[in-house]
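Sanity check

After download, print the first record. It should look like this:
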Amino acid sequence: MFCVNMSRLYLGYKSTIPRAMFHHSTFPRVVLPIVSSEVSVLPSFIPFVPLQYKHLHTSAVLERARQSTRIRKRKVALANKKKKEERIRKNPPPIPKKVQLMLIAKGLGKEPAPWRHPDSRPFPEDDVWSEMWCTWPRMSVKDSLESLSEHYHPTMLNRPEEMVWAKLEFNLQAPKKEKFMDGYSKMVPVYNPFERGVAEKTIMVFAKDPEAVQAAEAAGALKAGGLELVDDLAKGKIDVSDIDHFLAHEDIIKDLKPLIGILRDKMPSKPQGSVSSDLPKLVKTFAHGMSVSVIKPGPTLGYAEDPSYAYAELQIGRLNMDPELVESNLTTALTTLREQAPKRSGSYITRCQLYVEGPLKTKFDIHHPLIDDEKYVIHLATIPEEASSG
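Expected structure tokens:
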């Protein structure tokens, strides 16, 4: 056993610890065993000497690329992602065996089901037929409403004032091949209002023409005016939160730029459908109308992917209303939604079903001039006029 002076202890870097740090009065002399041939003995207490480290970067890892480079690379990544999705859609991978067994256990079938119900069966030739061998019947709007009213009559299900829903199916094939439209939302006017649990909206209209201002007020606008109304909003005389929708005529849209920072999301614009030359229709659309969403279903277990398929569900009236008023609301909705139809030949709204949310799960298909039911049109052309009129 030996003793050693800590002033000569080498700690593994170039400089040794200063001699003054290890004074005999500070560190007592303690007997320790031999550690190595170079250093024979060590003190019983080794002080902790903090070492300062600095990270050295050989490249600028914390700097971003130029904005134009980031945008270009993002566009390339999105394009590659779309190409991969399209390639997988055209050549889908086989369904794993375990997934097939799970689908069979859930009753979904081994193969994925299509979103559109296949319409390959013929029309019936007799007055009595089975839907197992024939296609589904197409009824008029009046007949389908009568059938729903019979099921929900007070002597049956006792729900005579239930809401009538319409389910629409769309073909979103774009004009270009292998291109498809995206889902969208559109305001649909309701010219025959009915109780649906929605508060009436307050409307403000901007227009230069005095006649257009009077027409907007007659249609139900809370306030309507020209440049003087713009000045009142800019000066804060009108509270923006009290108004639900701001609408504008096409002749004044350029004079509304000072209101961009004030109205923000409520700013009238053509993409939102809040700018038009037909102000009465526009006011009724936003005051009593409803937002209809055309939805494209995403990848769903048990269903085959169909990028052209979309659907929408909307309320068109109640069972205790006049069937003509309900049909008028449906016609208005179909006309408004067809404004978004792509510029191509072929079908757009392919199917329409009327139903009521309740115990009855049956949905009644209808025929309508604004529904592109090609099979029904061909069938009408093959039967005599007397039978079709009857």
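If your output differs, re-run the checksum step. Summary of this record's structure: The longest strand covers residues 309-318.
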